[in-house]
Amino acid sequence: MTHLPKIGQPATNALNNINVTTLEQVSKLDEHNLSKLHGLGPKAISILKKSLEDEGLSFSKLDDDLRHLKFTVLGDLKCDNAPKRRIVRDFVIASTIGDEKYLSNWLTDDFVWNVPGEFELNGKEAFIDEVKEHLQKVSSLEIKSMLTHGKEASTHGTIISHSGEEIHFAEMYEFENHKKDAKIKKATSYIVMRP
What pTM was computed for the model? Predict the structure, then answer.
């Protein structure tokens, strides 16, 4: 493992905040997304790029459909030939930014959201209203894993707000059927917030 080059304390802190401490980890990220991290300016990006090249590495490529986001999206993002992975990835992003159109298109009308020990909401409109009511300015979203199989899927990750609050989540999904364009029928979320 190759340690990070000298890129300045603000840039090093920005990477450490998303648990990136080696060049190998940097190579799994894309330049466009990294440039959105507070503290990681053009000079630090340039130094990282040169250091990656020196090690025979390079930045990862970002899917074009994620370029419009105003915050950094990291992690297990590739969907390749797994349509339900894309639905799950985009559901997490849409929930983070309050994308009412996406949520309305990909949730069944009788969608159920369960947060064990907290509450259960019935109906996609109730879910969308809840999401919109609790929107935060997001600095980064890391999707650590996504698994899909038949009518089920799961994911977990971390959202970091502009204020530095960390929201760790694990979610399990049930789709309405096995088809590749099935809508999400139910989500169970476990959420841990740390200031």
Answer: 0.79
